[in-house]
Design brief:
The chain is built from four helices and no strands. By secondary structure, it is mainly α.
Amino acid sequence: PPMSPPPVRRPEIARAGSLRRSLIRLAAVATLVAAAMIAAGAVALSNLADARSRVVDVIDPAFRDTEQLQVALVDQETGIRGYALAGQELFLEPWESGQRDEAAAVRSLSEMADDPALGIRSALEQVEARADTWRTRYAEPILAQVQAGQPVTVSPMLGKQLFDDLRASLTA
């Protein structure tokens, strides 16, 4: 029997097969990386939507109510100072409206106070405690003295100190 010639090995064919396998692996890796990037982008968009919703639905209303609380307390201070100086009921309007506005702001903030992301329960309690201290030690004695026709003997410096403490707790 005649002998058949040995098979001819062509290196370019072997390299083409190796290149094909490499390109398939590269395509598979690129597909996995792209899928991972798309998934990460979807998660990031979802987190962004959640964060945006939290800002709009929780943080902004809490900030607005805190600002209203601060304005209400300043109105009360303005009303008491005006009433102490002039002794006329007309000057009590900011005091009275400030108390109503304070109650509304505290009610609204109290509803949000248990939200752990805000963490405002203890701060709100401190603000209310300092507001009560300011009222009982400064504002209400002035009211009683002016209504009784007596001269105001409550120290303005005490009122300033107590209200500065109240402002500091509002800032916190």
